[in-house]
Amino acid sequence: QVQLVESGGGLVQAGGSLRLSCAASGSIGSINSMAWYRQAPGKQRELVAVIKSGGSTNYADSVKGRFTISRDNAKNTVYLQMNSLKFEDTAVYYCNAFRFLPPSHYWGQGTQVTVSA
Description:
The chain is mostly beta strands. The strands form two sheets. Strands 2, 4, 5, 6, 9, 10 and 11 form a seven-stranded mixed beta sheet that branches. Helices cover 0% and strands 57% of the residues.
């Protein structure tokens, strides 16, 4: 099992910045990738950014150039630095851990990000 705890959400004005953190514990040695997803009211959960075990990253087109995913292996923590925030970035942000074998997804409880226009 893997436990994920997010922090760092809040209310920010458009154009501002926030940094989300996701602390992982448990059987994290077998994790293949960590990611951030978000879900806005009335919309499906969508992938925001992913960092694989080798360090490669991918981003949704809507956040490229504004968001950066990173990790601190010593702290078992993944971060999402969000700059130039827009109203449409408002959502609950979820940390995700994925393991290939057996295929398993683990989720945090979510943290609310609200961007005021």
